[in-house]
Amino acid sequence: MELSDIGHRLDELIAKPAVPDDAPELLALGEHTLEQWVIAKGKEPTEDLREGFRLLALHRQGADKDPSFNACRETCRELVYHFNLLTLPTPDEQAEQYARMMALVANHLFLFVSGKMETEQLGVFCCASKPLRETVDVKDNAH
What we know:
The chain has six helices and no strands. It is an all-alpha fold. It is globular and about 45 Å long. The C terminus is likely disordered.
């Protein structure tokens, strides 16, 4: 799955009402996002699990020799956390809130990784790294 396809699917999921049944797909979209990072680094994405999740193993693989990639470690963990919450018996309203948050976290992961693929230094200080903001500002001012 290409990065643009992931972004389009996340946009679709965020635009509709959140449903807990989306949790497996959102987790998979997080994995596909990290796969793209690993592939861009010239590696074969792992099939291993870390703490029971491939997403966490892919993050570990992606962060190898790139400490700035650790900026998205907690985002990956939060995605797993919301997935786990949605496997528990939960009142519908609360489950919808967990699903909405999971979609937003998956999108945050996507935005970080896709931004980092454009601007290598992203994550050195934070997700609002100056080089990315400058690029966005130039594009926004062009309209």
